[in-house]
Structure prediction request, 412 residues.
Amino acid sequence: MANLPRIVITGIGLTAPNGNSLQEFRANLVAGVARIAEIDVRYMGRHPAGVCDFEATRYQKRKELRNGTRAGSVAIYCAQEAVKDAGIAWDAVDRARVGVYVGTTEHGNVETENEIYNISQFNYDTKFWTHHHNPRTVANNPAGEVTMNMGITGPHYTIGAACAAGNAGLIQAAQMLQLGEVDLALAGGVSESIHTFGIFAGFKNQGALAHHADPNKASRPFDCDRNGIVISEGGALYTLERLEDAQKRGAKIYAEIYGWCINSDATDAVLPNPDRQAECIEIALRRAGLRPQDIHLVSTHATATPLGDRQECEALRKVFADCPDTYINNTKSYIGHCMGAAGALELAGNLPSLVDGIVHPTINVDKLEPECEMPGLVLNQAKHVDRVDTILNNSFGMLGINSVLIVGKLRS
Prediction:
């Protein structure tokens, strides 16, 4: 990558169950504050879930909210906030040179389930089926809603990469900037998953849906008593630019993107493959020109499923066996699993470590499972460390898709 343009992060917009800005989100992570609710899931009763409470009407009219989608609304909020955070004079931007790349797990399930339920109240008479169905459910919807809301005429698409999608959106944007296809990119991931009962039912029938008397303790990666995933919604979109362009306008720079990798397990639809995960990490390191010892913070994907956590820990021990200055944490213990938004949100929550040297902990670990023990694992209490110059962000998904993104302080 040495001869390609360097890519930097200059803006962040997000909504998570425990924060609607990077500042609020980060403060809660460092303080150990989770915010998981219990919601009524159609046909299934009450279950823990991560619910976002952002001000949707800040950027959309009520009619647009009724006609559009929850995922689109999350994406619009995050995109607008990312541009504002980047300090870009939006009216002066050539919007034909802006690309929108939004990762997602799935799209359209929420709307289809709701519409089928609605017409079931009218004896399945399709005249009660909404004419908004098609634009709501096409795969490019969340990114497309952003372009319409912000007047962007450059390329847009969503990236279906299961729970690796947040990283995948950022990787796609970086590649398009390096190729000169766009001059500015809005990228990351979004999820509306809590609004579909099908996801809850699917995980429950797999034995992978979390339950706990206290919803804030339901998501507990690495803990002996973990029992599954807390399904959550959320989003994080970033403003990405070529370094030269960012410096020319005097932009604040959060981090430089050093390297990445996406690969496939090719072994099972659900069970992860630690060898392929380790390989993905190693390739990303190689592309970034780094050794494992050069990574100061690893953000894990761990979802609090017994096998999934063990497999990732096996992969991490293989790569980071001799890395005394590498610390490891997890964000899902606070917000649950935000699916397509997970990787993008987890990266955002860790980026301030590059400045303040604080590693937020994994919470809810009362008894660490022996198979999840790793050197450098930060548990239950934030840790001040000597330096955080680099962050490696893991995101893995169903059908065996793995994504790793490495970022760090601006290289000299």
Q: What stands out?
A: Residues 260-408 form a domain with the Peroxisomal Thiolase; Chain A, domain 1 fold (CATH 3.40.47.10). Residues 42 and 69 are 19 Å apart (CA to CA). The mean pLDDT is 97.
